[in-house]
């Protein structure tokens, strides 16, 4: 069966059809997938009944994998390359540390000096209704700004933290996170290292702009996030079991909506492909 691609929305995304990720991919198949990944920002692979090892092996085709030292509480105890995104409680009955993962607009690992190239999230247990994820196209967000705004934001850096907006039930985690991951300044406009295109690099984890007060920064940050997440730039993914969604963290942002019943189980596992160095510590 040959590969084909179906757009997921006008703004971004493509479904890859005719592929079984349990089988090795030829170089030519991988090249087609990689090209479409760069063009569309997100790829969806449906009905992939694969093992953890196969998930990791496919992810490695995109580059070196993160072992999640910056998120130690959330990684799988036996597979450091896998990050758990789950509401299944811990063995001692405590709520899962990753229950609220991703519930604000962000790009993965932006709070580190090597933000991620891309992430591959596998749906393992999906609630019957909801639990959706939204993605937005940050090239479009940049391209549709006025020339005046582009010129103003071009030299700016924004301070990214690992802090969550949705209140975590375990404040211990938050304390640990701020110790492991001190704030990092990242450019507000980043050039994608493979396509050479400019993309907006901002999100809800941004606390302030470098050289400005929080009060001064907030209206601009809020405007840029609102602009970047206009409905026409967005794709909303409704998960099915055995979906794998791959996204390019260098030109997209995403948010987990948390729109499902409290009693339902939601369990996904993610690999994170390392990107190129970006940003600097503030002191
Ligand atoms: O759970 C989701 O839908 C998305 C999780 C997420 O934001 C992430 O893995 O970075």
UniProtKB/TrEMBL annotation:
Residues 5-272 form the TauD/TfdA-like domain. GO terms for cellular component: cytoplasm. Keywords: Dioxygenase, Iron, Metal-binding, Oxidoreductase. The keyword Cell inner membrane does not apply. One of its GO terms (molecular function) is metal ion binding. One of its GO terms (biological process) is sulfur compound metabolic process. The keyword Oxidoreductase applies. SUPFAM superfamilies: Clavaminate synthase-like. It comes from the Bacteria. Belongs to the TfdA dioxygenase family. PANTHER family: ALPHA-KETOGLUTARATE-DEPENDENT SULFONATE DIOXYGENASE. This is Taurine dioxygenase.
